[in-house]
Amino acid sequence: MAASVRRIYAVVLRHLYLFRTSWLRILDSIYWPAVQMVMWGFLTQFLSSQTNYVAQAFGVLLSGLLLWEVLIRGNLSLSIAFLEEMWSRNLGHLFVSPLRPFEMAAGIVTVSLLRTLLGMIPVSLMAWAFFGYSVYDLGLPLIAFFLVLQMFGWSVGLSMSGMIMRLGLSAETFAWAGIFILLPVSGVYYPVSALPTWLQYIAWCLPTAYVFEGMRTILTQQVVRWDLMAPAFGLAIVYLAIGFRIFLWFFKSSRRKGTLLQQGE
Prior knowledge:
Helix content is 76%, strand content 0%. The protein is mostly helical and 265 residues long.
């Protein structure tokens, strides 16, 4: 059976209805990125008055924070969209309908994209209003960075959601914290070359390392490294395909074990 755009749209529409009836969900999409941006903004603004070197790092730190939040929001927004179904014991109802697992996955990926945009656009405008810094000065490469980070965040979110579907809400912590293990090796706030050699090999296996290296090159040398974008996109697509496969594998495993109807609070 081919994928149905209408069924994917139905999954997205259900979550949009949840947004319409709960302003707390909208606030939650903006709250943490805003808190992080304000805290790091004031910190880097203070440090910029201390030395010339740190003054040059102001844009690098704030851009790194905002792009890292794009990855975090992509992962968490997808996980939350899935957990909404777990918390409300709705998985059984969804999968006795014609909805197929990959349509469900495509639906929550779309919801994740909308929630990320809802959270990050206001926060990027706040960075401009509070600190006079615009992440949009990165230009067209910002679109490429955003897409790569979103795809990678979705891949992690799909894997974590599949694991929660199979193991139950006892594994929920991984949905919130799993992505942060990548922070030290992603080169968000320092170059990959600052890592030990063996960790650099791991870093270059992640699309995030290419994104943040590319970001630093633009801000410090005013050079766009398109050669970094090709491996970043390639890796992000591979990881996204793996994420979908893991989600579907856990779904089949849950269905065989008969655990889909037993999940929930």
